[in-house]
Amino acid sequence: MKNIFFFAVLICMFIFPISCSGREALDVSALVSVNDSVSMEQEDSDLQICVSKCMQSLRNGSEPQNSKCVNSAEFIEDVTVPDGTVLSPGEHFRKVWRLKNTGTCTWSRSYKVVSSGMFHMGGSQYAYMADTVEPGETADISMNLIAPVIYGNFESEYMLEDENGNRFGITGTRTKKEMPFWLKVAVTNPSDCSVVRVSPYAVWRFSDFDAVFRIKNNSDTEWNADEIDVRISSGADYLKYPERGLIDLPESVKPGEAGTIIFDMIAPDFQGDSEITIQLLKEQEVICTVTNRITFL
User: Fold this and answer.
1) Less crowded by CB within 10 Å, the N or C end of the chain?
2) Cα–Cα distance list, 182 to 31, 71, 80, 281 (Å)
3) Which of helix, strand or coil describes residue 55?
4) E strand map for the chain
5) What pTM, to 2 d.p., does this model score?
6) Fold assignment, 193-296
């Protein structure tokens, strides 16, 4: 029976190295020297504590609580497909996020990025780590995805998942809470105009912000600033200056080029999603419509 106990403890010490009462992890030679005398009544109380903790961990099939590591991540940048990127319906693309391992766990190749929100892009729903990422290191995390086949602004959310199925996200700089990282794209009809970039996607309540629309002229004629008007068709309630709901195009835009339109806004006092839609008009005829879906935090 003593031999069985000895070998169980020996295995335990290799699987769950722990330290007790200020000493280093129990030395195996110490176990050999007490092979014939180890018992729950032995005088070496430190040894008893180590053995007890180790055997308890072995019975539970898990490491002691004080040896568990922590999963945590920080968003660094979008390497490809930044927020507001315009895609064609059904377009295949590769999204790459750069993240930093800010926890104490090593991200092995068993870790993966998974789609976690209500809306899912086409293509992969998860992808494994390409390489091991040690604490403090950064890594490029990628997925092969497919844009929706319908037009509009779309947002999908993602989290990391360890080998045990535990999910974790990035730590917010303001809330200090874990949250998903995301992908935000616009899928547009390649007609007379298309969205190059819209911003912002989220603002705090009561804050002043600029609603920015960068629009490409896909037609074969120039948009003359003296002939084109810009109108807010939805979201006019957020205008800082309501009288500027209809303005002239700020600058002429040649075919194949893009122009930027900016409206001064004030976020409302509620939380939730809303839309700001602008239209370009030529002689009262709508030639372009662009929508930005925005979240008030």
Assistant:
1) N
2) 52, 19, 12, 34
3) helix
4) 73-78, 85-87, 92-101, 112-115, 122-123, 126-128, 138-146, 152-161, 167-168, 170-171, 178-179, 181-187, 193-199, 202-203, 208-217, 228-234, 246-248, 258-266, 272-282, 285-296
5) 0.48
6) Immunoglobulin-like (2.60.40)
Angle at 242 between CA 236 and CA 248, to 5 degrees: 85
CATH topology for the 73-187 domain: Immunoglobulin-like (2.60.40)
3-state secondary structure of 7: helix
Per-residue pLDDT of 221-273, as tens digits, reads 899 999 999 988 888 888 988 887 888 999 999 999 999 999 899 999 988 88
Residues 230 and 249 sit within 8 Å (Cβ to Cβ)? yes
Give the list of residues 6+ apart from residue 137 with CB closer than 8 angstroms, or none: 100, 101
Distance separating alpha carbons of residues 26 and 8, to the nearest angstrom = 14
